[in-house]
Amino acid sequence: MTDQKDSATDEPVTTRKGIRSFVLRQGRMTSGQEKAWERSWPRFGLSRSDGMIEPRELFGRQAMLNLEIGFGMGQSLATMAEAAPEQDFIGVEVHRPGVGALLKEVEDRGLENVRVYNIDANDVIDFCLPDASLDRVMVFFPDPWHKKRHHKRRLIQPEFVQRLRHKLRVGGVLHLTTDWENYSEHMMAVMSTAEGFANTMPENGFSPRPKDRPITKFEERGLGKGHGVWDLVFRRTN
Q1: Whose CB among 17, 145, 155, 206 lies 3.0–4.6 Å from 21's, allowing a Cys bridge?
Q2: CB 164 within 8 A of CB 125
Q3: Is 6 annotated as ligand-binding?
Q4: Looking at residues 18-46, what average pLDDT do you find?
C-alpha cells in the first residue's frame, strides 16, 4: 500500500500503484538489528526525499558503483563490499529486518562503502539515480512467483530492464541470478530480446557464477540437494 510508512524514515515504501513484485512482510527486527538501525541509519541510510544522488559527493570519491536490488538480510552485499573496498555499493530492500541486518553487518565489518534504501527499487530508479551512474546492477534470487497466475509479478520484465539500462553506463553490467529454472528461462527470454544489452557469454548461454558473487547459506543448502542456480550477465551496449 502506498501509504504504509516506515517509522524511521516516515516515507511510504512505494509510490507506485498496480502490480508489485513484493509483498511486505511484518517481521520484527531483533534487538541487535534495531540498535544497528538507530546507530547507523543516519549515516548510511538514503531516502526518497534526498532526491537524485551525486555518487562522488555521497561516497566522497570517484569509484565503481554497484547497486543490489533486494539484498535480503544483507550478508552477501556486505561480503562483496568488504572484499572490494575500492568499490562503492548501494543496497535496496523493502523489508526493515533485512535493512537492520545489513546495517549490523556494516558496523561489525567496519564498512564505509555501503549505503542503503528501505523503499521500492522502482522509486530508487525513478527518483534517486542519475542516468548512466551505475557500473553494475545485481538482482540475486528475486521472488520467482512460481505459480503461473503470479508470473506478472516477477520483477524482471522488459519495461523494468529498460529502466535499469538507462541507469547503467554504456559497458555496465546487469547480473541476474535465480534458483528457479522456469524463472531463469523467463529472464533469458527477456534479456535476449532487450534493446541495448548483449550477453557476455557465447551462444547466449548462462554464465558460470562470477567469483565475486558470494554463495549464500540458502544457496549452499540448495546445491547440496542438487538444485540448480542460473546466472545471467549482460552488458549495456548503447
Answers
A1: 155
A2: yes
A3: no
A4: 84
Nearest to 125 by CA among 217, 193, 45, 53: 53
104 is in an annotated binding site: no
Q: At what angle do helices 31-44 and 96-109 cross, to 10 degrees?
A: 80
Q: Is 147 annotated as a binding residue?
A: yes
Whether residue 57 is annotated as binding a ligand: the answer is no
DSSP lists the bridge partners of residue 177 as 140, 231
CATH of 30-60+68-130, one of 2.70.70.10, 3.40.50.150, 3.40.50.1820, 1.10.3720.10: 3.40.50.150
Question: CB-hemisphere CA count at 13 Å for 64?
Answer: 13
- Cell 541507469 belongs to residue: 167
Please, which pLDDT band fits residue 149 given cuts at 50, 70 and 90? low
* Length in residues, the chain: 238
Using CA atoms in the order 93, 86, 136, 171, what is the torsion angle rounded to 10 degrees?
170
Q: Residues 238, 212, 100, 227: what is their CA dihedral angle, to the nearest 10 degrees?
A: 100
Sign of torsion, CA 234 214 88 126? Answer: positive
